[in-house]
TrEMBL record:
One Pfam family it belongs to: NMT1
Gene3D superfamilies: Periplasmic binding protein-like II
Regions crossing the membrane: none
Domain SsuA/THI5-like: 62-278
InterPro entries recorded: NMT1/THI5, SsuA/THI5, TAT_signal, TAT_signal_bac_arc
Name by which UniProt lists this protein: ABC-type nitrate/sulfonate/bicarbonate transport system, periplasmic component
GO biological process: one example: thiamine biosynthetic process
Organism of this sequence: Slackia heliotrinireducens (strain ATCC 29202 / DSM 20476 / NCTC 11029 / RHS 1)
Domain of life according to the entry: Bacteria
Length: 349
């Protein structure tokens, strides 16, 4: 697998959404990507007695994916009779590839799935496991600016990638904190490294993942402030990222889906119990990654993969529904979403 090191430095929320946004165009055009890569029934091929599975990432390899790398390295998939191949997302993103059956499984997000599920031709895929239990994203800024809450974003710039749902999220938390969203200046996101953008004052505030950008700031001794969205509106505690499966494949191969999730859960449980060993496995598989950043991120995520859930991967029905109801109320989807659409806990171990 060839990874561009530059893309690893710019592992940002904006990067994920940029890829996902491109994919929505393909979905609207009728799932044209990946249809020729697999048989029409989506059934896995067998080699050496193992069932072959393709798992498409949402972006370049990172600590959100560690459990899958651990499951491969430690033989958990083989124990379940599976041969799992990790594939990088195409230019138009992972979602269309999963929906088309070009990959059976892959990584996406509850918010991204909403756009596909609410379209006139809903994407035929389902979230079957939450990688991280809670939304660990929020706003990072320079410490010297004292932007410690959404209201304090007034009079400052925010690095936007110009998505309606993104700006509605910022407006929501600013107003929930008693602020005036019109006083937050939108500026185009012009760099691929959140910390570098703050250092150079390309912007004052930026939407980041605490598990990556904030840890990156720590190892760079960059003084920052950070606040998570979920402290200001519980409806924004959506699932990001999730593992999704092609619906046709899931219906035809329920035992394979369960086997895949059993092995994957063992990988993430290993990462929880021994984050440094898990970090070492990821870096060995992807040597382009910064070992120090991976170790820091892994230590943080060890407390997030399962968090307050009873088991890895579990979806809370009320939290899933609350976010889709928020999207409906804000009129951010093409058609009204069923608030329980797009996920299941039925295949978890």
């Amino acid at each position: 697998m060839s990874i561009n090191p530059a893309s690893l430095a710019g592992l940002s929320r904006r990067s994920f959404m940029k890829v996902a946004g491109a994919a929505s165009v393909i979905a609207a055009a009728g799932l044209s990507v990946g249809c020729a890569q697999q048989g029409g029934d989506g059934a896995p091929a067998n080699t050496d007695g193992l069932t072959e599975i393709s798992f498409v990432l949402d972006y370049t390899p990172n600590t959100n994916h560690t459990g899958v790398y651990v499951a491969i390295a430690n033989g958990y998939y083989e124990e379940e009779g599976l041969a799992v191949t990790i594939v990088m997302p195409p230019e138009d993103g992972a979602d269309a590839l999963i929906g088309s059956g070009g990959a059976q499984f892959g990584v996406t997000y509850q918010d991204t799935m909403a756009n596909y599920l609410a379209s006139e031709t809903p994407m035929p895929y389902t979230a079957v496991a939450a990688v991280v239990q809670h939304n660990t994203s929020g706003i990072m800024s320079r410490a010297e600016d004292n932007i410690t809450s959404p209201k304090k974003m007034e009079g400052h710039t925010y690095a936007t990638w110009n998505l309606d749902v993104e700006q509605a999220t910022i407006r929501d938390v600013v107003e929930a904190d008693g602020g005036d969203f019109s006083k937050v200046e939108m500026v185009p996101y012009a760099v691929d490294d959140d910390v570098a953008g703050l250092r150079t004052k390309a912007f004052d505030t930026v939407w980041v993942y605490e598990g990556w950008a904030v840890q990156n700031a720590k190892i760079q001794d960059f003084e920052y402030n950070y606040f998570p969205f979920i402290e200001f509106d519980s409806a924004l505690d959506f699932y990001t990222p999730v593992i999704a499966v092609n619906d046709e494949f899931m219906a035809a191969n329920p035992d394979v889906v369960k086997a895949f999730l059993r092995a994957t859960a063992k990988g993430y449980e290993f990462a929880v119990s021994d984050p440094q060993a898990a970090a070492d496995i990821l870096v060995e598989a992807v040597p382009e990654l910064d070992p120090e950043l991976v170790a820091e991120s892994q230590e943080y995520l060890a407390g997030q993969y399962i968090s307050d859930a009873e088991r890895w991967g579990e979806f809370d029905a009320d939290r899933w529904a609350a976010y889709y109801q928020w999207l409906n109320d804000e009129k951010l989807v093409a058609t009204e979403l069923a608030v329980d659409a797009g996920y299941t806990n039925d295949y978890l171990a």
